[in-house]
Amino acid sequence: MPSTHPASGAARDHFQVLIIGGGTAGITVAARLRRAGLCDIAVLEPADVHWYQPLWTLVGGGRAPLGVTHRPEASVMPRRVHWIREAATAVDPEVRTVTTAHRTIGYDHLVMAPGLQLDWDAIPGLDAAIGHGAVSSNYAFEYAPYTWELIRGLRSGTAVFTQPSGPVKCGGAPQKIAYLAADHWRRQGVLDRIRVVLVLPADSMFGVPVWRRALERVAERYGIEVRLNSEMTSVDGAARRLTVADRSTGAEDGLAFDLLHAVPPQRAPGWVERGPLADPASPYGYVEVDKHTLQHPRHRNVFALGDVANLPTSKTGAAVRKQAPVLVANLVAEINGEHREQRRYDGYTSCPLVTARGKVLLAEFDYDQRPAPSIPLLDTTKERRDMWLLKRYGLPALYWRGMLKGLV
């Protein structure tokens, strides 16, 4: 497979299209650009492993092995796309260059898809506590199996599941693991001995009313104590105690726990946040783009999608699947100097809300928080077994065999 490497004397320093990031968004766009006939494409990605992150919740809930969630990066890199195995450290859109630790690479057109970073240090005590004792998180592959170990071992006490303020990958994931855990404890006959607390920063459990009401019923079924407008502000892993702040009143109180599943705050990579492409309106440093065309408003040869784009929709792989064809169509038109009407992204995203072993609510909606169902004749506002099979088996197959190949 063609690639470039810092040690290679044949390393190229300019490409027609440079894609920063070889995750879901970057690989999907690269594959679609190849299918559109473009040949001079490079992907800047240092990692050797490609992860399918949506299954990490099921890993943490004991319903999937970690091994099915990853493949070698080389196996998903599109053919005849240059793979530069380095990390970006800066971008200069005025001179059209991207800098790494080893070189400067020029481009005609740039696609920003580096994802986001997990900010474990943003909550005092979390970085020191995560991954041992009673604290875990499904938001990192190395901790997801430990989540299941903690859930399986808990027979009584207090289990706390938190979500931070600000955008996070798959906003439903912090709730899904709480439901999987509660379902397991109920099946083991110990749920009545466990206090389950769900700490959420928003004023409701979900932004779209039909799924909000459904999730309220799920939480009631398990007896989960839901704290809205609240977030964890510190944690002491050794003492097994955390602090919860009520965002509406400013009051704080301590909470002892026997299990904590913590979701870290998330933001753009530091070099993006400090760089010229960041949206001044984003407190998390995400890239500024037109929410419909995915084009940067000040640099027409720059596009962004996926987690790094400052879009008012949930950060999910399903969103990327709808963003990628729009971005590629508009990018190709820009390259060809076409002045036709641009393709538009409507904010579609999807979140399969796992509510129990074998049950899923499939939430699909757009920028206006309107339901946007993609499966005719199925009521996905109700918990369904077939949507569980889609989540566990159908979507991963679609991802590896279709999406990353630019087919869907």
- Residue ranges: pLDDT <50 for 5 or more in a row? 1-10
| Mean residue pLDDT | 95
Cα radius of gyration in angstroms: 21 Å
Percent helix range: 25-40%
Seen as an oligomer or otherwise, the chain set is single chain
Q: List the total number of helices.
A: 10
Q: In a few lines, what is going on in this structure?
A:
By secondary structure, this protein is an alpha/beta fold.
Structure keywords:
408 residues, alpha/beta, eight-stranded mixed β-sheet, five-stranded parallel β-sheet, 25% strand
Describe the structure.
The protein has 408 residues and is an alpha/beta fold. Helices cover 26% and strands 25% of the residues. It contains 10 helices and 22 strands. Helix 1 packs across helix 9 (317-336). The longest helix has 20 residues, at 317-336. Mean pLDDT is 95; it is low at 1-10.
